[in-house]
Amino acid sequence: MKNILKTLLFILVTVMLVSCGKEKPKATVTPNSEVTYDKGADLTGAVKKIDKSGGMVTFYNPVLDSEETFIYNSATSIQSKYGEEMVMDQVEPGEVYDLYVDDVGSGLVKMKQAEGLIEETDATVFPDSDSMLMSVDGVNYSYSQNMVALSGDRSIDPMEITAMDRVTFRGVKGKAYSVIVTRGHGYVEPVEYGDFVGGTLTIEGEAILPITEGMLVMVPEGKQTIFMKNGDLQSKADTQVERSKVSKLNMKETMSQVPNTARVSFHIYPEGAELYVNGTMVDYTKPVPMYYGTHVIKVVLEGYNDYQGTISVKDPEPSFRIDLAEEVASVEDTKTDETQSQTETPSSTVNDDDGTIQTPSSVDYDVDHTITVSSPEGASVYINGTYKGVAPCKFTKCIGQITLTLQKEGYQTKSYSLDIIDDSQDTSLSFPDLGTAESATN
């Protein structure tokens, strides 16, 4: 046993002596020169503003939800996502870049287009300021007020983007970085159109609206063709609509009568009788618009025999006299020329193919509640192009998706897309001050 212990003690001493004779490994002072070390980007940001005269670029930092401004110069490397060299003139607001900054943290060493982004062009956007979500072609993304939202060179509230606008959107899953309006909207204000009130207004390829007094119609920017029609009157006018601006359009200058239509005058005795044309009661205190052709008429007055017959309309301004009697009703054409419109024997033929454009279904209203627009004071308020008053103003509550437009002389005209819910309560709305008209072009 003693021999075994001596042997173990000898081995332990030998190992300790050998270990003490070896040098400890030293740390490498400098990295291996054959290995390259690539420093990652300091942050990723969306271009918000470029100041070429001052040599500065402002970015939206989506991680910190803040704005960051950096200095750039000729030594700053600007690269596409494929590594191609670019110049600052090729950089567009809304584009997203990976940023590499200097040791001080104020200068840009390199900026390279970010990869792996979601980018949608010619997209439609529906922002919701309550949830701070925007739907882009049906997909929801969160956003903040610091996000890049531009229309031309002007920063905008995302709520100013309407359903008819088209945008370029950039972001990542669930997060919006930038929204740039590529096709915005302007406004058409019809003037001299009293003869068309009650008819229909058609924006070629866009919409059909009922014509009311004091209209202000929001339309896509660019060349627009506007039609108005009321009975036998029509007008067509072209205009160039500029973004966020109002274009006044005189509809009387191009007013004409619809081809193959007439303004028929009726003189019916005794007074007070009702006149029906093709089964519809009409107001004959003024000329009645009618298409050329044969029409069934009926005259009714209590105490007299009803008259029913047909008239043939061939001329622009025919006139007919109808005298009711106890037993016999006579119809006399005031025109003597045989080529003029003539009365004919009764016929069952009815021509009601008048080509009238159908008006859209009416907006739903909650007549027991109101919408109040309190600001900006002095601005004219329009709902879907129909004038409602000058803010502060109150009007009957309309339900559903609407476009509310604010207009004030000398200021920008702005529109907001809103979804008014049927909650059996009054609704109060207020909006930011309108910028001056000059600022819209800066």
Number-wise, the strands total 38
Question: Helix amount, in percent?
Answer: under 10%
* Shape label: elongated
Structural class, from helix and strand content?
A: mainly beta
Radius of gyration: 38 Å
Outline the low-pLDDT stretches: 327-362
Average pLDDT across residues? Answer: 83
Distance between the termini: 101 Å
Biggest β-sheet: strands ordered side by side in the sheet? 3-2-1-6-7-4-5
Specify the biggest β-sheet: 7 strands, mixed
Sheet-strand content, in percent, reads over 45%
Q: How many helix segments? A: 1
Structure notes:
With 442 residues, the chain is mainly β. It is 4% helix and 49% strand. It has 1 helix and 38 strands. The chain has one helix spanning 2-20; strands at residues 43-51, 56-61, 66-71, 77-79, 85-86, 96-101, 108-113, 118-123, 125-128, 133-136, 139-142, 148-151, 154-155, 166-172, 175-183, 185-191, 200-203, 207-210, 217-220, 222-230, 233-241, 246-250, 255-257, 261-269, 274-277, 280-282, 288-291, 293-300, 307-313, 319-323, 330-333, 342-344, 364-375, 380-383, 386-390, 393-407, 414-420, 427-430. The protein has a 7-stranded mixed β-sheet, with no helix packed on it. β1 and β2 (56-61) form a beta hairpin. The termini are far apart. 25% of the residues are buried.
Keywords:
442 residues; six-stranded mixed β-sheet; seven-stranded mixed β-sheet; mainly beta
Question: How would you briefly describe this protein structure?
Answer:
The protein has one helix and 38 strands. It is mostly beta strands and 442 residues long.
